[in-house]
Amino acid sequence: MAGQPSDIVVLFPVSKSAHPHRVVVTGAGILTALGAGWQPNAQGFRAGRVAMRPVSLFPVDRQRIGLAGEADLPPLPSTRLGARQMKRMDRAATMLLFAAHEAWIQSGWGPSDDLPLVLGTTSGGMMLGETYYRQAIQTPDLRRGQAERVHNYLAQRQGLNLADAFGFSGPMTIIANACASGANAIGHAFELLRRGGARRVLTGGYDALSQVVFGGFDSLQALSPTRCRPFDVRRDGLALGEGAAVLALETLDSARRRDALILGEIVGYGAANDTHHLTQPHPQGEAAVTSMSAACTCAGLSPEKIDYLNAHGTGTPLNDSAEAAAINKWAGTHAARLPVSSTKSSIGHLLGAAGAVETVVCLMALQGQWLPPTSTLETPDPACGFPLVQTPADAALEYALTNSFGFGGANASLILRRHP
Amino acid sequence: MSGVFIAGLGAVSPAGWTVASLRSALAIGLPLPAVDLPRPGWARRPLSVRQVPPPEQRPAFVTHPRLRRTSPVAHHTLSAALEALGVDAALISSGALTLGIIYCTMNGCVNYSRRFYDEVLKDPRTASPLLFPETVFNSPASHLGSLLGATAVNYTLVGDAGVFLQGLALAAEWLTDGRVGGCLVVGAEETDWLLADALRLFDRQAVAAAGAGAIYLRTGPERGAAVRLSAVTNPHLFRAGIPRRHAAQLAREEIAFNPPPALLCDGLQGSERSDRDEREVWADWTGIRISPKRILGEGFTAAAAWQCVAAADMLGREPFSAATVSVVGCHAQAIAGQFIKTNPTES
User: Pick from A177, A188, A275: which is nearest to B149 by CB?
Assistant: First the structure.
């Protein structure tokens, strides 16, 4: 067509590499109820320490449940953020910044005008939104602080904080696929790198405890009134937690060129949508089978190659039975030799952070060659045709798979590989 | 010629429940009437919003078991999506079409979130378990997937208005990678006094609006499709040292200049404060310009979707060669996109 403009190379269309790039992790940061940073978390997950405690962030005296994996917030690290910006940050933003700082420092990255950011969250700065609402109805004429709360409540502000803190810019993508958000974010970042759409990506997930979400899970009677025991025959619900995990991902070529320390490799990602019910999985975990199979196809692996599976394993009767059925079907005869655990027994369900935190747990396990136990497990559900890791154990691990499933049917699986 | 083509458009807006009603309102060119929403405990000045009028007929989808108690934002999403998909909606559950879904929103289900939190504050023991799942950002995308039987990848993206264009770019990637056979991108919002109250803190002239826009993309022109998604710029973040105006300028510089007759569909809404940066950056545009938000209101991601739907619709019907969409978000990023008219015989 005469006069038709030519395409321009921007976000779309992008040039693609002929061969997929290998994607490695060169930085990892984590904050959970087990502690702030890689070391305390690695020790805690390896030992299967349980970090549940009474919730202190909001009133729970009228809730059925009062325990959660509440984290201690460390002092904010020194970044390019000014004191005023840091003062405005809420709990979720603080946890995200801490995890990102740890990953950033470890990666050795510097300021950049071309660094995509991909984050997963379910509720952004929800606690600020709650404060906004309470003030709006209790003192309607008092406007002080309200604009600032709106500004910092939005998830994109927490992403922008990271850009300001470390001096980078680039496309920012925030995926809110409920409890699979963190895994979808890492998976999306992986795909971006793999097809040559970026050289480096900062990615992860975060969520803080909030009254509305705690009340929500309690209203669904999804919280355990006893103890979160994933895959236990007497399991009776999940425990909520909070935290953040951030990964510095880059292509293997990029990492090698700068002689970066490589913590591990992401080799596969699969995602699928479960259309069965808004809050309940398909009883046979059909979408979970699809996402695990797709991750294996992406990685060029058969299930027999997977040495450890970090399950979504919330501890609710429905999730764990569906996931068990899915693992049995997907792994086939290999299931009998596949160690499986749910680290939610230690820190609770971190919702939008869960997939990212559990990816870091897999990195830890691959690096340290150990299996994180489900230490609250008492009597394994006989529906599990696979060995459940109940006590700390060493193991030779090459590949680990982590599952994340969310409300609404978002299913995601990631496969990680040990880096020699 | 390969490419990513628009295979369908859908819209729900203060003008009505179809693209035709959106087109008609834009042709008339007058701001649609706003209604007042009472704000509890604050009688001084009501909050003006532009709501979606009741549908002429009850949408058939509300009889689906999943959708009986769903929120307005879910209804907007579903209606726009089904209009965009047209007959292809029937291909999905049989597996004849692998459909990707990208649902974009800034505020999510604010109605049910406010109601649920209010119940938690009053007495968490009686807070409704029916409300809470609908408050989750991805519930409209989940309902849409369930209604269609779509089991492929389904992402909910959160951000300011520009996230809709990011969604188009992501859809184009999925299509060109062969990951999906078609991809639906929806931007949707709903109104509530809480949202209007928050918007008023930043811009007293802005009028919050509800609705959704949907674009159904496929590779290769089909059924006479003649509008192609040609480019989406990088999203330029508002951050230290890069204020909103600068970000808007960067987005403009990235988008190709189109000789006349080209169309600009901008995000101006008639508010001095919100419009200033975008108006200055595009001040020298000499071609035809339309500003859907002046007519419809500040619909955040839905408004960006209306802009894209309106641009693509006009491109398909009127003698323009290309249409540029400028989206300067309220909070995070500026971005632009471009559609071009293609002669189907070139394909």
Answer: A275
